[in-house]
């Protein structure tokens, strides 16, 4: 393959000529702009400073029209007054040439207008009649005993009137509410458990142990509420009773049941199927907390003795028995034979229906009215009977501690 250098040279020569024609105007314009910028930098002038008046040399006067002189296009030039001449010097001769008359003083005459009697009525008697306004006995309202007592209470700086005189009654009624913290004591009778071997102080079993439950179980919070009825025997001794609704319980740890276990299909307790398995310490992350709740209707029978007494304040010790009737159950019950937990929501024969408990505490009270008394009572309650009946092997006694807050009304 050969190249024709003459054709190539001719081709590029044509292209260069065309480029020269295109680029040359821009190069000249750029050089001119560069020169003007240099001139502007030295002289400090720009395009605005160029004077184009030389163009008027070629202006023609043939078409020029002479403008007529009118009032609209006349410019008036006001010549200012020399500063050496003041306004007083200019105006004083003119004022002096004027004659100013003398004004003589005359006594003032005051003319009173004639009085005219107006017979027109000020208001329409038919529209507003005094007979329609009923009499108000303001004095009787001001001296009202309740109003006087109300104003005296507003003026007092105390939340409780310090001038009240308590009126102690032989009988009183009251209402109280107590938030509580609940737990239980736990143990079981080995003679009712199948497969337990006892050697000295040790028990050997494959199922649930006391140590496991006591480590994993926790206390729960609940409440008691009820009414109080009391009778004063002496100045310091009182007996009381009432009606209460009390809640007890505990929280235990369980594990989800394995339905593929062959023992699951054959296990049964109180005609119920297994719900959970025993808590496994090695797999505690899979544990499930469950709260057992036992509700009782209680009738307290107790005495109260006033240790420290002031006019409106006292501290007393109280204690007594609580007669109990089981009202509601929601709990998991462990079966030692099948090694499963079962959910019980009814008052089955396994639970004790009636029982007795004890309670003790200290009561701090303050009169806030003549017959109204508020009190705070830290209290401890313990059930003497187990939650379960034999032959179920678990011995479980519920107990609670709380702060009873209430009010008493002294009757007569």
Q: What would a concise description of this structure say?
A:
Helix content is 19%, strand content 37%. The chain has 412 residues and is of the alpha+beta class.
Descriptive notes:
With 412 residues, the protein is α+β, with helices and mostly antiparallel strands. The protein has a domain at 171-410: Porin (Beta Barrel). Helix content is 19%, strand content 37%. It contains 6 helices and 12 strands. The strands form 2 sheets. Strands 1, 4, 5, 6, 7, 8, 9, 10, 11 and 12 form a 10-stranded antiparallel sheet that branches. A two-stranded antiparallel sheet has the order 2-3. The mean pLDDT is 81.
Short descriptors:
412 residues; 6 helices; 10-stranded antiparallel sheet; alpha+beta; 12 strands; Porin
Outline the fold blueprint.
Blueprint: H1 5-43, H2 87-96, H3 138-142, H4 145-155, E1 171-188, E2 197-199, E3 202-204, H5 210-216, E4 220-232, E5 237-256, H6 262-266, E6 276-278, E7 287-309, E8 313-335, E9 340-344, E10 354-367, E11 372-383, E12 394-410
Antiparallel strand pairs: 1-4, 1-12, 2-3, 4-5, 5-6, 5-7, 6-9, 7-8, 8-9, 8-10, 10-11, 11-12
DSSP strand tally: 12
The share of residues in helices is 10-25%
Q: Treating each run of at least 4 consecutive H or I residues as one helix, how many helices?
A: 6
- Report the average pLDDT across residues: 81
Give the CA-based shape. Answer: flat
Radius of gyration: 57 Å
- What would you call the structural class? alpha+beta
Cα separation of the termini: 139 Å
At CATH level 2, the architecture of the domain at 171-410 is Beta Barrel
Helix/strand order, N-terminal first? HHHHEEEHEEHEEEEEEE
- Describe the sheet with the most strands: 10 strands, antiparallel
CATH topology of the domain at 171-410: the name is Porin
Low-confidence stretches: none
CATH class of the domain at 171-410: Mainly Beta
% residues in beta strands:
35-45%
Oligomer: single chain
